[in-house]
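User: Please predict the structure of the protein below. I'd like the answer in structure-token form so I can feed it into my own downstream comparison script.

Assistant: Understood. Taking the following sequence of 180 residues as input:
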Amino acid sequence: MSPSTSAIISVFSLGLAALSGVVAQDTLPYNFTLAALNVTEPNANSTGAPLVLATSGALPGLRSYVTATYASAGFTGWSELGLEGGVLNAYYQDELNVANATIIESGSWMAYVTGDVDVSGEQYSVVESEGAEYGKLAVNGDADSWSLCPHSFGQPKMAVMYEATERFCYAVTLQVVPLE
């Protein structure tokens, strides 16, 4: 597809989103947490299951994390997230360490990396629908392809996958819960 055709499609899509009462933002003026709301079964609350960063591996000077449920991973110290220009970052409780969300593709875990490496892509946004209590985290405009799946690397946990390819997963939306 040519760049001009792509631009026309993007403008058309933005126009349709505006008409339907959906607003997408690639920068938020506040920090937030994420919660996974099950879209196939009843939920215990309107927010969903709290999500945290859980360790998934390490190399010298580099640590990797996946987004997992608090119930499966416990408290990890990564207390809040921020979104600026489509780049998603996690901030550690000491406010000195930052983890960058990695570029996400179909069948990949929602992951973060710390260290001297640029892995982030400008692909995240928050989609807000008129009347909805919380915005939904989206990748390239898609907020409806998230799942929670068993993640067995390291300590077993339930982690977030985009366009799930694993078995035993269930569909969720990732709600953006503002921090006060």
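That's the full token string. The radius of gyration is 16 Å.
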